[in-house]
Amino acid sequence: MMKPSVAEVLHRGRMLWIILLSTIALGWTTPIPLIEDSEEIDEPCFDPCYCEVKESLFHIHCDSKGFTNISQITEFWSRPFKLYLQRNSMRKLYTNSFLHLNNAVSINLGNNALQDIQMGAFNGLKILKRLYLHENKLDVFRNDTFLGLESLEYLQADYNVIKRIESGAFRNLSKLRVLILNDNLIPMLPTNLFKAVSLTHLDLRGNRLKVLFYRGMLDHIGRSLMELQLEENPWNCTCDIVQLKSWLERIPYTALVGDITCETPFHFHGKDLREIRKTELCPLLSDSEVEASLGIPHLSSSKENAWPTKPSSMLSSVHFTASSVEYKSSNKQPKPTKQPRTPRPPSTSQALYPGPNQPPVAPYQTRPPIPIICPTGCTCNLHINDLGLTVNCKERGFNNISELLPRPLNAKKLYLSSNLIQKIYRSDFWNFSSLDLLHLGNNRISYVQDGAFINLPNLKSLFLNGNDIERLTPGMFRGLQSLHYLYFEFNVIREIQPAAFSLMPNLKLLFLNNNLLRTLPTDAFAGTSLARLNLRKNYFLYLPVAGVLEHLNAIVQIDLNENPWDCTCDLVPFKQWIETISSVSVVGEVLCGSPENLTHRDVRSVELEALCPELLRAA
Ligand SMILES: *[C@@H]1O[C@H](CO)[C@@H](O)[C@H](O)[C@H]1NC(C)=O
Ligand SMILES: *[C@@H]1O[C@H](CO)[C@@H](O)[C@H](O)[C@H]1NC(C)=O
Ligand SMILES: *[C@@H]1O[C@H](CO)[C@@H](O)[C@H](O)[C@H]1NC(C)=O
Ligand SMILES: *[C@@H]1O[C@H](CO)[C@@H](O)[C@H](O)[C@H]1NC(C)=O
Ligand SMILES: *[C@@H]1O[C@H](CO)[C@@H](O)[C@H](O)[C@H]1NC(C)=O
Ligand SMILES: *[C@@H]1O[C@H](CO)[C@@H](O)[C@H](O)[C@H]1NC(C)=O
Ligand SMILES: *[C@@H]1O[C@H](CO)[C@@H](O)[C@H](O)[C@H]1NC(C)=O
């Protein structure tokens, strides 16, 4: 399972919109089904595909048909069409492959084995609006990759292995609005990448970004942005990141930006960038000096960068952020909940992606369409795309989740970090079934009742970092069938029971760093599809391959640093395993902690004979 694409979210938003309107109108909650008439087909189909006309567009379904080359699709269609080619076996897109498919408005190449897009592959696709390349093996976007796609509005390429994007890759995609690049390996974005585009949605979650600069990057994104997702990158919270922080403080308060959690330096690990003062990030400079040196224009003097949507009460804090009091008032409580929303400038209001022949999704409201129910002591934000609510109850001294009253409707994200919660009960989340993110980090949780999260079937991210949890059991995770991201760093975990994670088939990321683990049980990772695993700073002497590491067949990144690896014969299978997975997958060093004559040597650089002289003697 992937993260929902923006399109899916928008689509769901649309459904929900209908549900809510019907709820309001009829006092009744059954969704009204969207009825789609099947119209008459006046074009040939193409064997073995299946075709239909929907919403006046021709749809050609060629999913899972074993195609290996676009040239195998020999038909020509004279009316606009959508072509579905998911789950085929294409490895390469050749120059001019699509010339005869020039009436395509949408092409889905998700879940193939694409490694290479030749220059000019998309030539001729002049009316193509949507291109899906997700779940392939693409590793680079070159300047010439997307030539010819002059109408492209939507590009989705999540779950590839993109490591490099050339600065001109999008220079001719002047209509591009939605760019989905989450779960790749992008270490940096080149200057001026977005110079020619006006993105409204940009998803960069789960990459390797450490910093984003203002000039040539954020200044370009900021023009039209509605939603930016930056979670799960290894943000390096030092002087350079002040630019990103300053920028975040001045983008419209309705723009949605995910959490930016610092990975480095160590003393900021796990902290939200927005909660660290600039003078802490960059101690040598005062705030105004930092800003001046970065060349970020002053809002008052730069009309293009002034955001008309921001209430003036918030703008006032932008220039002087030195005092923590002001900082709090501008950031901890981002906005009064029921404040009317101001319409956006026209350039962004077309942003809610208008699919062909689809009515606009929830239009911008001058006030929320439904009353917002928000628990006392928290602040709530309505997510205009899907009418979900973000409920922010950070640092409010809550002892118990049962104190959260009244219960909000359609809460999507619940932030309960930095409270005083000690125990989690099954009844705590009865009324939160629409949650996709639950943040319980930095509490005092030592007890999690079996089945505590059983009523959260849609939960994708669960943060339990910074608590007092000692043991992980399978029962804790019952019902979390959608969970992708699980954070347990900085607890006191000593024990993981067998098959603890196996009830979470979609688990992609697991952070267990900074705990007290010495071993992992057999089948620890069986039944998951982990791509990222952090085991840093525990007490592992060795890890078995059979029954444990061998189940990590989808691993993209693993952190094994700061464990006292015992470089003796037992470690041989482990050494061989880390050598077989790609070198980019292993983060940093894997140093021996013993025996004495091998300490501080990287396990990979220790010769087999030194690791296990017995092997040699036996031979
Ligand atoms: C795929 O089709 C192209 C023409 O578009 C051709 O040049 C190429 O050789 C074909 N490749 C394979 C592997 O069949
Ligand atoms: C890509 O295009 C950009 C801008 O158009 C140019 O500066 C850069 O050198 C190009 N890169 C390559 C590898 O051709
Ligand atoms: C980019 O678009 C411009 C104008 O539409 C066109 O003149 C130019 O040839 C295009 N460049 C490439 C490399 O396609
Ligand atoms: C973070 O930034 C600092 C200062 O630029 C640099 O010295 C350090 O190496 C960076 N850390 C990482 C992990 O990139
Ligand atoms: C939290 O709630 C539980 C059950 O509702 C109750 O037994 C407990 O005393 C409460 N704890 C605190 C600290 O309020
Ligand atoms: C939560 O939901 C249950 C049933 O689903 C209902 O009985 C209860 O009143 C709700 N509690 C709150 C606090 O809304
Ligand atoms: C390390 O020390 C052990 C004895 O403790 C010895 O058998 C081994 O040969 C030494 N290895 C190296 C590489 O010096």
TrEMBL record:
Membrane topology: Single-pass type I membrane protein
One GO BP: synaptic transmission, GABAergic
SMART domains reported in the protein's UniProt record: LRR_TYP (SM00369), LRRCT (SM00082)
Principal place of residence: membrane
GO cellular component, one term: GABA-ergic synapse
Subcellular location, record wording: Membrane
Superkingdom of source: Eukaryota
Entry similarity comment: Belongs to the SLITRK family.
Protein name (record): SLIT and NTRK like family member 3
Alphabetical UniProt keywords: Leucine-rich repeat, Membrane, Repeat, Signal, Transmembrane, Transmembrane helix
Region (Disordered): 326-361
N-terminal signal peptide: 1-29
Record-annotated LRRCT domain positions: 233-283, 563-613
